[in-house]
Amino acid sequence: MRKVLNDLFDYGYKIYQQDDEFKFSIDSVLLAEFIKIPKFDCKILDMCTGNAPIPLILCTKTKSKIIGVEIQENIFECAVDSVNYNKLDEQILLINDDVKNITNYYNVGSFDIVSCNPPFFKVGSESLVNLSDSKAKARHEITIDLIQVIKTAKYLLKNKGEFYLVHRPERLQEILLGLSNNNFAVKKIQFAYSSLDKKATIVLLRAVNNGKNGMHVEKPIDIHKHSSYKGIFEEE
User: Hey, where are the domains in the chain?
Assistant: First the structure.
């Protein structure tokens, strides 16, 4: 494995990646942009943080404390190097552990915002055969599944705290059912497309812990028409 240092798009930060293994994707960038940061000082947790693109981007939007959790040690090391390189170690704290164990670190209701770009695919998908172990864990529900992600967010969020999730549209029914069963109210859904004449490839959701019903489906995002992702949701 060789680590390389890349630009984090036009956010002014650098990010370490593995040139032959895990690389962050547009999913994480869109999720970071989708998160609405309150004006008050808040506490944010990013689950399945990978090499920390979401915490890094959020640092351009807030001075609040951000916690990132990543299970894979080699990817976690890239995250640590990225945070240290950008001199953000006082704002971002990284934890190398299973997301399901984060309840051992923090009490119920510890966070105002929880975000997650989780593994999208169920175990058993044929594509798993040709993936490396690192990529398989990042893309498939090997170490954590959708419902475990939702239950962990539920435990960690304050009453009326916000949960931000990026996932695949074909699993939207499961997502909505899982959130409803854990007393989340979905407040906002946004679909992203590689081209508006094709099927959506990404869905973003904002849900409120113990919130009231009332959901908005926003205008679609055409990803590739944008030269920059900064403020992409404000532009539409």
Answer: 3-235
* Cβ atoms within 10 Å of 161's Cβ, excluding its own: 24
Q: Which fold has domain 3-235?
A: Rossmann fold (3.40.50)
pLDDT of residue 130: 44
Q: Is the confidence at residue 222, as pLDDT, over 60?
A: yes
Question: CA–CA separation, 231 vs 218, rounded Å?
Answer: 15
* Contacts (Cβ under 8 Å, ≥6 apart) of 8: 14, 15, 53, 56, 57
Task: Give residue-wise pLDDT tens across range 165-179.
Answer: 999 999 999 999 999
**DSSP letters spanning the chain:** --EEEEE-TTSS-EEEEETTS----HHHHHHHHHPPPPSS--EEEEES-TTSHHHHHHTTT--SEEEEEES-HHHHHHHHHHHHHTT-TTTEEEEES-GGGGGGTS-TT-EEEEEE----B-TT-GGGGGS-HHHHHHHBTTS--HHHHHHHHHHHEEEEEEEEEEE-GGGHHHHHHHHHHTTEEEEEEEEEESSTTS---EEEEEEEETPPS--EEPPPEEGGG-S--TTHHHH-
pTM of the model: 0.92
Give the Cα-Cα-Cα angle 83, 192, 156 (nearest 5 degrees).
Answer: 50
